[in-house]
Amino acid sequence: MNARFTAEQDEIRRTLRELLTKRCTPADVRAAVDTPAGHDPALWAALADGLGLPALALPQRYGGVGCPVTELALACEETGRALAPSPLLGTTVLSAPLLLALGTDAQRARLLPRLASGALTAALAAPGPALATALALTGGNGGGWAGGGRAGGVQARRADGGWRLYGQADQVLDGHSAGLLIVPAHTGGFARSRTLLFLVPGDAPGLTRTRQTSLDATRPQGCVQLRDTEAELLGADDPGRVREALAATGDASAACLAAEAVGAAARILELTVEYVGRREQFGRPVGSFQAVKHRLADVHVRVEAARSAACYAAWATAHGEQAGGERAGEDRGGGERAGEDRGGGERAGEDRGGGERAGEDREGGERAGGPALAEALTALNAAAAEGIQLHGGIGFTWEHDAHLYLKRAKGDELLFGPVHRLRAHAADRARLFETTEIFEAIGSEEAG
Questions:
Q1: Where is this region: Disordered (predicted)?
Q2: Fewer C-beta within 10 Å: the chain N or C terminus?
Q3: Can you tell me whether residue 195 is helix, strand or coil?
Q4: How much is the pLDDT for 355?
C-alpha cells in the first residue's frame, strides 16, 4: 500500500475544501437542514456539475470518471469536515453500486448516467434500524431484515406480469426527497422466502413519503409507505447475488463513512485547539495547561489512528483485498495505484468478464470497512465529547457547532453500528473467537 496521495487526489481535496469553506459554513448547514429537502439543491448542483462528485466511482461508459473508492472516500472526508448535508451518501455511496452490480444492461444505461450527472438522486429504502444488517456490517444479511407479513417492512408480489409492493420503511436516508428508491422487499411467502431489490420512481402512484425527525438533522430521513405500488425488479430474481451485492456495498460504504467520520473528528479537534488557544483563564490560555494538552493529544492520536484505518479500508476495497491481506482478485503487481487501468482501459467498478462484478465478495473472508468505521466513530465520539467539554459553558448549549459533530457521531452509530457490533462481526469473520477456543482446548490437553 502506498500511503502517499497522487497529484489528482490532492487536487480533489483542495478544490472540494475551497468550495465547502465558501458554500457550507455552519450557518449554511443549519439553514439547509431546515428546508423540506434537508439539503441545499444549489450546493448539490455545484458538487455534481462543478466537481463531478456523483460520477467519481462510476465507470466512464455510464458518464462516470472511473475512479476507485479511494477518491470517493477522500471526497467524503472533506464533506465530513463541513458536515455537508447532501444526497452524496444515499445516491453515490449506497445506491449507485447496487445498480452497477445488479442492474440489467438496460437499467444501468437508463439510470447510471443520470446519477453520475447529479440530475437524479437515489435512496436505499431499507428501514433505518435494519440498514446495518442489510449491508452486512453487524452480522449476516441472510435473515428477514426486510420484514414482511406481521413483521412489518415491505412485501412484494407478482401481479399482471409485474411486481407490486406493500408496506412501510421508516428512517430511510433521503427517503423523503430522492428521485429513485431502491426498495428491499420480502417475497415468496414461507415456502420460497427471499429478499429482492426493486426500483420505484419517486412519483410512483401509491407511494407516500414524509420527512421524519432525526437525531442528526444533517442526515435527513423519511418514512416511505407503499400501497399497491408498481415496481421494477432490479436485475434478476437471485437472492444470493442480492446479498453479496449488499455486503460489498456495505464494505465500500463503511470505508467512505469512516473517512467522513475522520474528517468530522479532525475538524472539531481543530476548532477545539483554536478555542483553547485564545480562551484565557488565570491570565494564560486554557490550552497552555498540561491537562488540556494531554486530553487533546489523546484525541489527536485517536484521529490519526482512525485516518490510517480509513485509508487502508478504502485502498483495500479499491484493490479487492480482504482486511487480512489476502487479495480477492489476481495479484496485479506492486506499485499499481488504485484506479489505474488494469488492461484494455478497464477501470475499477466495471465488469471484469464472466459475469463477475466489481465489489462482489469473491473469496469471502474478512472485510476492512467495518473495523475502520468502528475506529472512526470511536474517534469522532471522543473528539466531539472533548470539544464540548473544553469549550466550557458555551459548548454545552445546543446552539454551539460542537453539538452538530456529536449528533453526527451518535446518529451514524445508530444507523451503521453500534461500534461494539461492528467489531464483533469483524471478529466473527476473522474467526478470532474460534482460534481462541482452539488454543484453550490445546492448553487444557497439555495441562492434563
A1: 320-369
A2: C
A3: strand
A4: 37
Amino acid at 237: D
| CB distance 420 to 381 below 8 Å | no
Spatial contact of 186 and 156, defined as CB atoms under 8 Å apart: yes
Average pLDDT over residues 139-152: 73
Asked if 136 contacts 429 with a C-beta cutoff of 8 angstroms, the reply is no
DSSP secondary structure string for all residues of 48-68: IIIT-GGGTTS-GGGT-----
- CATH number, domain of 382, equals 1.20.140.10
Closest CA to 276 of 265, 285, 289: 285
Average pLDDT over residues 76-91: 97
**CA 159, 161, 166, 171: dihedral to nearest 10 degrees?**
180
Domain count, the chain: 3
Residues 264-280 as b or e (16 or more Cβ within 10 Å = b): bbbbbbebbbebbeeee
Residue 374, pLDDT above cutoff 60: yes
- Is the pLDDT at 348 greater than 70, yes or no? no
Residues 251 and 222 in one domain: no
Its pTM stands at: 0.87
The Cα 315–Cα 329 span in angstroms is: 14
Q: Is the pLDDT of residue 61 over 50?
A: yes
